[in-house]
Amino acid sequence: MADTMQFDLVSPERKLASYTASQIEIPGAAGDLTAMPGHARMITTLRPGVLKVKGAEGEKDYVVTGGFAEINDESISILAEKAMPLADTKAGDIEPFIEAAQAAASEAQGAARDIAEKQLADFIALRDMVG
Amino acid sequence: MPSLKDLKMRIDSVKSTRKITKAMQMVAAAKLRRAQDAAEAARPYTERFAAVLAKVAETAKGSDDAPLLLRGTGSDQVHMLVVMTSERGLCGGFNSSIVKTARNKIDELRAKGKTVKILTVGKKGREQLKREYGDLFVDHVDLSEIKTLGFANAKAIAVDLLSRFEAGEFDVATLFYSTFESVISQIPQAQQIIPTPVPDTAGADGGVVDFEPDQEEILAELLPTGVATAIFSALLENAASEQGARMSAMDNATRNAGDMIDGLTIQYNRSRQAVITNELIEIISGAEAL
């Protein structure tokens, strides 16, 4: 079994990263998970959070606002709605998302409200992590 | 016969037209490069997205409780046509060819007794369709203020479209846009986006895939994103096609202006010579008469 896997991070507007990594921490919608080479094939949705990638050049962190992750035993693709390196992200970049989430949470009803509120909480946690 | 002064003025005016079309061609060439880069940058996401969608949708496709977006409403009575054209003119047959494709589809659907609704993106197509199909318009998206297309623009269109779909306003949605082949060739397309067509999975190796939280929830998020992705890549393709079409249209215009200047210059020189000859004849016959 190989001890590295192909890691790709893409957003609709551009390809952010593509290299080999040994370990990736993913902010999954149902909880954080760590993918290593040989992981069972799975597809998960992401919540707003920080993606931590351990590669040959050390550890790199990326902020993602949501999207999907596709894990295969030798590769992993993150399809992020919006993503940027953690080092370049400021708390101010997250604010518009918090405002949008707040608006969505105050409008939503029933089950949709729970989802919207969780989204809001995730964004606030993300802002605190960044700032 | 126009006077020398008239000819001179016409030559000058065609020369300034040539300068403008030449400048527009160069601007379009620069914009084309940017638009192509943007389309290129979006490709990895689109490809991977299709792969993920294929995997998730493959198993859900057959079941009755598949999401509405995948399964469709079970009817195809009401069609929503999303016609994407440019905000600016002077780009040759670009808008007309998209509108023509859309028009064929509208006529075909109406002949079958279907109801057609039109959502226009970009004002040029709207203008062309207005006279004949103005009563079918449901909405218009104005992109004229937008300098660089972002995913957010596509998402806004998708959200609007999806809320209409959920409200039961239509059964099938089709996108009309042009794909960029080369500067001289842009191909108008009609692409169905709702219900979501499942990409062909013949090449997939079909292992067991885990879903987290579960397949249904992933699909609920994946399918709307899929609509936005399809719209985004259509917008990008369209932007590149528009600049390509403008570039070749302006190239033609520049060349035509050059031909016209040559023709007018010859005419100008001939009439100048005729005037000189005339004057000479007058002088000589005047001298002979003495």
Structure explained in plain terms:
The complex is a heterodimer of chains A (131) and B (290). Helices cover 29% and strands 44% of the residues of chain A. Chain A is α+β, with helices and mostly antiparallel strands and 131 residues long. Chain A has 2 domains: 5-86, F0F1 ATP synthase delta/epsilon subunit, N-terminal (ATP Synthase, domain 1); 90-130. In chain A, strand 7 (67-71) and strand 8 (75-80) form a beta hairpin. The longest helix of chain A is centred in the C-terminal third of the chain and has 21 residues, at 110-130. Chain A is globular and about 50 Å long. The mean pLDDT of chain A is 87. Chain B has 290 residues and is of the alpha/beta class. Chain B has a 5-stranded mixed β-sheet, with helices on both faces. Chain B folds into 2 domains: 4-20 and 251-289, Orthogonal Bundle (Helix Hairpins); 30-249, Pyruvate Kinase, Chain: A, domain 1 (3-Layer(aba) Sandwich). In chain B, helix 1 runs antiparallel to helix 6. The longest helix of chain B has 75 residues, at 215-289. Chain B is elongated and about 115 Å long. Classes of the chains: A alpha+beta (131), B alpha/beta (290). Chains A and B meet through strand 4 and strand 7 of A and helix 1, strand 6 and helix 6 of B.
